[in-house]
Design a protein that fits this description.
CATH architecture of chain B: Orthogonal Bundle
Mean pLDDT of chain B: 86
Mean pLDDT of chain A: 84
Structural class of chain A: alpha/beta
Strand content of chain B: under 5%
Radius of gyration of chain B: 22 Å
Low-confidence stretches of chain A: 612-617
Strand content of chain A: 15-25%
Largest interface: A-B, 33 and 18 residues
Order of helices and strands of chain B: HHHHHHHHHHH
Helix content of chain B: over 70%
CATH superfamily of chain B: MetI-like
Distance between the termini of chain A: 43 Å
Number of strands of chain B: 0
Largest sheet of chain B: none
Shape of chain A: globular
Oligomer: heterodimer
Distance between the termini of chain B: 17 Å
Shape of chain B: elongated
Radius of gyration of chain A: 26 Å
CATH topology of chain B: MetI-like fold
Largest sheet of chain A: 8 strands, mixed
Strand order of the largest sheet of chain A: 6-7-8-3-9-10-12-11
Number of domains of chain B: 1
Structural class of chain B: mainly alpha
CATH class of chain B: Mainly Alpha
């Protein structure tokens, strides 16, 4: 027993992971070293593609055959995992090393009941048949699921995302593991559920003394939940140390820019400094020797691109991988957002006005097709957007935000209430007026993947509006328009002949926005447009929206679940809950002094607001 | 690399396309390639063995059938019938099936319901029986064979393409096009049709193979093209009677049918793998 306690539960020592593609080998992970002790939580923080999940898969041994560990050791409780046979490693999984995956609904088998799956897991752990159902029910009660016995008979699709995640956490802890690897366990969940799930995780960890590796892209979450944090960038670990030190006073330029790129929910409002470009993809890694962050680093010098920078100790257990010259460099503090950046409501007539608008869907149908119950997706919602105003609409999934967007766009008709565009009712307007009104309202969709036709190139996409009969122009004019739109949205000039699959996520979103701008709308409806983007790319898009508002005077109805982003962008905010607007007003006022209980619970659930780590400084 | 370029590099597509081109050339150059007129009967030389046999002659490379007609010439001219039927029937089924699929998938609601029920009903008839009935009703001839195949096989196109259309219809970019003011017709042509095109082309290719089989089946029972048109199925039906004396009368058209269907299937299969983004394996 004492022998085991001298080893850290997990220790990576100079691990380098290579993948071979033909003649080239790419180093997907370079010289990764960290340790995790019993009862401690390590956070692996980074943007998508940084290699965090790769470490999780390395630990589990679930890598494709062409991947091999070229250097270093991977020690679990003192034993080298890389030297073990596949069977031995498999024996560890689910027993001493447990995983909590990212998408809870798809991690559970949809055709088996919860009880069956849990029993299967317990069977593997050696629990005798008679005891399996009881033990499963006990564990479900331990994770605070209501009516555990009844829950055992239900199927995953009958549970919410949060409940599924609780089941997975119960299964993970039921084997009394020494190590838990949680790969973005709360990304797919809303803020309030996220807070509860993380609380549950910490509670179980404290009870069983397991070590936890938490993989996440959310800095604030890592600051709140983890003891130690390692920051990943393009397969390198660039900074490592105690969570409070790394995230309150980071040294590495990337960590600093990451911290600055995340909008803050309290404290003074600052302009988000956005780094150019994005993290190099896997194929580009081959060409980057030395520090992989160097091309984007604001303080790089010639030595950076040469060789992998060494580790420097900058504090107790706090190490940074950076060139000598950059350490201790004084970064200028981010400037405060000047008041003129966000438009305040003006006296001119509203661009959009919703008066007690409701949208009811027919629910279950009775025997003869008559609706038995109606679902109120939107219930008596009133909202105005003035010219040049940015208004945020926040709420969790299912609150009716997207239904409001669909109403505004004319994709749905309100069941009751009035919807006015620039003072006119589209339902009673005649054709030419209706066409003009509809043109003045444009939507930017959330998922750039499905919002752009994969067979059209960028030129054809941004000027798509010019293919309609009322706007037909000749080719040179269309080219001119395309170039104007590209420039306005900050896309490189050479992207016109490219197709969406050749663009990055941020670029796709810009094309999305450019398409909406083609016919110079007065109101943009943005439905969760930055949710799937990396933090630094998100900052770029937010700054773009601010610039467009300033230069073109467009209004914006910004729908999001991310309160900090809404605070950065919008002068007014409306909070939705279950189809109703529960609170509305000036953004700063609502977030500083929330009056409705739901708004308060939302604000409390956002990680940055809770102790112990305060990132406002 | 675009889908089409990677498609052309795929092995299956190249082999299939190559075979198809050979078939096309044979059909087009039939008067040049065939040693005799396929309908010319030589009573003195019935059931002669092929040229490589001791008793055969170079005049009839594959021998003759019971009426003294050159087997090789019949096979070569038969390719014309086969390819005509294949292309025409595939085109017809594709046009009819895809038109209904686009309309049903795009409009949804009652139209979709109606078309789906129609397809369900139509598909409940056993296809072979249905085509036989149609041929009895319509009479023989190449045009009627094509019509019979189109009337049976359009349902296959309709069902498959409809689900593709429905999936595409739900995508945000179709909604975006409508919101930009695109009419229904323009949306279908510019946004939905290009998305369904790869599937349609794959099915077209596979349908050609099916058409060849159906034509052969129909001519086997004598309900296909007229008596004086050379067709592979007819050759097999005739050759059955004297398979021990002149086996090549039956083997030659069988090889030809096999080669044609192999070409169409390889092409169709290769196109499907190359053009379906889900089946494309990712690197690393």
């Amino acid at each position: 027993m004492s022998e085991m306690q001298t080893h850290p539960v997990l220790a990576l020592d100079g691990v380098t992971l290579q993948a071979g593609t033909g003649n080239k080998t790419i180093e997907l992970l370079r010289d990764i070293s960290f340790t995790v002790e019993r009862g401690r939580t390590l956070g692996l923080v980074g943007e998508s593609g940084a290699g965090k999940s790769m470490i999780g898969r390395l630990i589990s041994g679930l890598l494709p055959p062409s991947f091999q560990v070229a250097a270093g050791r991977l020690l679990f409780d003192g034993a080298d995992l890389t030297g073990q046979s596949a069977a031995a490693r498999r024996a560890l999984l689910g027993r001493r090393i447990a995983f909590v995956p990212q998408e809870p609904l798809s991690a559970l088998n949809p055709v088996l009941s919860i009880g069956r799956q849990f029993a299967e897991h317990l069977a593997r752990l050696g629990v005798p048949d008679r005891q399996r159902q009881d033990r499963a029910a006990e564990w479900l009660a331990a994770v605070h699921l209501p009516e555990p016995r009844a829950m055992l008979r239900r199927y995953p699709h009958e549970l919410s995302g949060g409940q599924c995640q609780r089941v997975l956490i119960a299964m993970a802890f039921s084997s009394e593991p020494s190590l838990i690897v949680a790969d973005e366990p709360t990304t797919a969940l809303d803020v309030i559920t996220q807070a509860r799930i993380m609380q549950l995780l910490k509670e179980q960890q404290a009870l069983h003394g397991a070590a936890v590796v938490l993989i996440t892209h959310d800095l604030h979450l890592a600051a709140q939940v983890c003891d130690e944090v390692g920051v990943m960038y393009a397969g390198d670990m660039v900074e490592r140390g105690p969570a409070s030190a790394v995230l309150r006073a980071p040294f590495h330029p990337y960590t600093r820019s990451l911290r600055n790129s995340v909008p803050a929910l309290d404290g003074p409002r600052r302009i988000l400094p956005a780094l150019p470009d994005q993290m190099p993809g896997v194929m580009a890694l081959a060409g980057l020797g030395g520090c992989r962050f160097a091309p984007r680093c604001p303080s790089r010098d010639t030595a950076c691109a040469g060789a992998l920078p060494p580790w420097h100790e900058v504090g107790p257990a706090h190490r940074v991988r950076c060139a000598d010259a950059c350490l201790g460099a004084d970064f200028p503090p981010a400037a405060d957002v000047p008041d003129g950046l966000i438009r305040l409501p003006s006296e001119a007539p509203a661009v959009l006005e919703l008066c007690d608008v409701s949208l009811h869907y027919a629910g279950r149908r009775g025997l003869f097709g008559r609706p038995a119950a109606t679902i109120a997706a939107v219930h008596e919602v009133s909202l105005t957007v003035g010219p040049g105003e940015f208004v945020g609409l926040v709420g969790e999934s299912g609150s009716g935000k997207s239904s409001v967007a669909r109403l505004v766009m004319g994709l749905e008709r309100p069941t009751s209430g009035r919807l006015l565009l620039e003072g006119h009712d589209p339902l009673t307007a005649d054709q030419p007026l209706l066409r003009a009104l509809r043109e003045h309202v444009q939507i930017v969709f959330q998922d750039p993947q499905s919002a752009l036709n994969p067979r059209r190139n960028v030129f054809s996409l941004v000027t798509q509006a010019l293919e309609v009969s009322g706007h037909r122009v000749d080719r040179p004019e269309r080219r001119r328009q395309a170039r104007r739109l590209i420039e306005e949205t900050g896309l490189p000039a050479d992207c016109l002949p490219r197709v969406p699959s050749q663009l990055s996520g941020g670029q796709k979103q810009r094309v999305n926005i450019a398409r909406a701008l083609c016919v110079t709308p007065r109101l943009l409806v943005a439905d969760e447009i930055v949710s799937g983007l990396d933090v630094s790319v998100q900052a770029q898009i937010l700054n773009l929206l601010l610039r467009l508002g300033r230069e073109l005077g467009i209004s914006l109805l910004f729908i999001s679940h991310d309160l900090a982003v809404v605070r950065y962008l919008c002068s007014r905010v409306a909070v939705m809950y279950r189809g109703r607007i529960v609170e509305t007003g000036d953004t700063e006022e609502v977030f500083a002094n929330p009056r409705h209980a739901y708004t308060r619970s939302l604000l409390e659930a956002v990680p940055s607001n809770r102790p112990p780590v305060d990132l406002a400084g | 690399m675009s889908g089409w370029q990677s498609a052309l590099r795929a092995g299956k597509v190249q082999v299939g396309l190559g075979l198809l081109i050979i078939l096309l050339l044979v059909a087009l150059l039939a008067p040049v390639l065939a040693p005799h007129d396929p309908r010319e009967q030589d009573i003195l030389n019935t059931l002669t063995p092929p040229a490589w046999d001791a008793e055969g002659s170079a005049e009839y490379p594959m021998g003759t059938d019971s009426l003294g007609r050159c087997i090789l010439s019949q096979v070569i001219y038969g390719s014309r019938t086969a390819l005509t039927v294949a292309f025409a029937a595939a085109t017809g089924s594709m046009l009819l099936g895809c038109l209904l699929a686009l309309v049903a998938g795009y409009l949804g609601g009652k139209t979709d319901w109606l078309v789906t029920r129609m397809v369900d009903l139509w598909m409940s008839f056993p296809p072979v029986v249905l085509s036989l009935l149609l041929m009895v009703g319509l009479g023989t001839g190449v045009r009627n064979v094509v019509l019979a195949i189109v009337l049976v096989d359009w349902t296959r196109f309709c069902r498959v393409v409809r689900s593709d259309v429905i999936v595409t219809r739900r995508r945000d970019y179709v909604t975006a096009a409508r919101l930009l003011g695109f009419s229904h017709l323009r949306t279908i042509i510019r946004e939905i049709l290009p998305a369904a095109a790869p599937l349609m082309i794959t099915m077209f290719s596979l349908e050609m193979g099916i058409a060849v089989i159906v034509e052969a089946t129909l001519s086997f029972v004598g309900l296909s093209v007229g008596a004086d048109v050379p067709a592979w199925g007819v050759m097999i039906a005739d050759g059955r009677g004297y398979v021990h004396q002149a086996p090549w009368a039956m083997i030659a058209p069988m090889i030809a049918i096999f080669a044609a269907i192999l070409a169409f299937n390889l092409l169709g299969d290769g196109l499907r793998s190359a053009l379906d983004p889900r089946l494309r394996t990712s690197r690393i």
